[in-house]
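Action item from last week, closing it out:
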Amino acid sequence: MKTEPGLYDFWPYVNRPKITWPDGKKIAFMVAPNIEFYELNPPPNPHRKSWPRPYPDITPYSYRDHGNRVGHWRLMEMMDEFNVRGSVSLSIAMCQHHPEIIEATVERKWDFFSHGIYNTRYTYGMDEAQERAILQDAIDTVKAATGQRIRGYLAPALTHTERTMDLIADMGFTYTADLFQDDQPQPIKVKSGKLISMPYSLEVNDHYAYNVYGNAPRQYSELLKRQFDQLLNEGRESGTVMCIPLHAYLIGRTHRMEPFREVLDYVCNQHKDDVWVTTSGEIADYYIEHYYDAALADIAKYG
């Protein structure tokens, strides 16, 4: 039995090859809205229940539905104010359920990565053929709906098999958001292709802030600013990445919007000279072109 995932090597944060983002920026900043659909009665997975209470559990279903009906529209308009394009963690079935939302994000030139078909259907227990079929469906569906060839993957509900990383790399994905081991991208060990970890976050994810930690809106906005300040300070030595993962059914509530607007103003206006406001796909492309090989060589020194 493995004692560690074996997906990446130990690589100390200090003395790495220096990263400089485009135009000399110190920090790459992205906002990652989760655009999701939660089924009322998903097929059961023997490894994990989708809902804690018996069917029909209409309360959490309707609570999350607020994001698609209301919250996303608020969030998109606010992000427009600050010229922030979303890096969308997409439940692929949204392309059929609510194409209006997908069309609105395409108009804004947002970037997409796969978050599975539904966040209520888990990867646990799948064989290779099933997992490949889900990935291919994601590639084909998003291409048809948006014109984009998705390059990133965040597993549905963060569920995996032992082959997930090898499969996404083999199928042409270039980054995973499923690993939380670093504040800079890092090459991932896969059998074929080039795959990097994209710094995502559970600590500044609005799900954890509001549903787990019980933060008030002002507490969450201050948390985000502290995260940004620290990463910017470190980014003066070597470029860092800050990702804010959001769920419109949480951040899109009326009383939470204004404190989040203050965060976007703080990052995008007050610190604009130091910040590359970008998307996950653009970060991945730039890193792989300019820093992937140097990172591999530096990591090898610790092997």
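Closing note: The two ends are 21 Å apart (CA to CA).
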